[in-house]
Amino acid sequence: MSKTLLVVHHTPSPHCQAMLEAVLSGASDPDIEGVEVVRRPALSVSVSDMLAADGYLLGSPANLGYISGALKHAFDVCYYPILDATRGRPFGLFLHGNEGTEGAQRAVDSITAGLGWVKAADYVVVSGSPGKAELQACWELGATVAAQLMD
């Protein structure tokens, strides 16, 4: 039985998009078997998407020191309906921000702690244009979280 890795993202800039593509590439590595990668824009993710997933990758710009309004909206819509059903599930996070990413990281830490999710890998936080090393870190984030779902 395959597992589902849900990638919930708000990637409005070319930098965020490049990070998303690297995360998806890592999560979809051919060596990772039995894991279906499903991507949903944060503004359209549903409670059923969240409930159907076995793990999560979250992507957002850090806007004014906080996660994007789109990612916040996703949690506002889904938080209570998924609260008990998703405890213990692994997640990862990638953020892009030019400054003040600490508030965005704190927000995700607070939300995921409330949900009882388990941080599966170090967060990838990039300022400025993501270079080869940062995109490799994104690839590794995707691969790490996906590999943890393999049977």
TrEMBL record:
Residues 47-127 form the NADPH-dependent FMN reductase-like domain. It comes from [Mycobacterium] zoologicum. It comes from the Bacteria. InterPro entries: Flavoprotein-like_sf, FMN_Rdtase-like_dom. Pfam families: FMN_red (PF03358). SUPFAM superfamilies: Flavoproteins. This is NAD(P)H-dependent oxidoreductase.
